[in-house]
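Example record for the data management plan.
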Amino acid sequence: MTRLRRLWLLPGLFAGAIAFYAALATILAVIPGRIVPIDGTGTVEIRLVHSPIHYDFLLPLNDVTRAAFGFTAAEDVPIDHPAATWLLVGWGAEDFYTRTGSAGDLSLRATLKGAIGDASVLRFDAWGPLPAGFQTRPLTLSEPQFEALIAAIRSDLLTPDTPVPVTTEGLSTTDAFFRARDRFHLFRTCNTWISRKLREAGVEMGLWTPLTWSVSLSYSLWQAPD
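Corresponding structural encoding:
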């Protein structure tokens, strides 16, 4: 009877854990995290783009970006194509990120592995001009902040001097994945990575933003255009 009672309690405990996680993901998103102060002039516009579960950076493809991420061309990312104007960059769990292009691709194995802990990868893709009405969240950085963001992203490659590609079909015909530092898990997600990289570039964001909702909330408090 005691064992049966414990089994009945499990769904409630699981639901409670999810609710607690979601509450923390909201509360800590509105508490500003520590930033690296960076002064400077000039303006560079970047963008944040998201799916229901994941945020990516969109970085303008300029001389700084191409110099920092030129290695991606060897894996057929067309960063030097005349029509390429944006570089998409994201970080995530290897098994989950390299296989999940949409909700229909979700698998229990990859989800559980990502939650418990998995190796991480960085994804790069080249995009052309954004279609009219395409929803993104703009951010204006100074030139030193932009360079700091580029350096912070590069530092997350497993071996920055000799980036190691991951053999996978990818999520598009033009993207590529490279092995990255740190392990992905429930408390260090693709969305916490976005905010952490921005704070390293002197951009104020929330202390902990594990969900897309957390990033959106943090952005709306400190970075949304007036």
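Summary line stored alongside the record: The chain has seven helices and seven strands.
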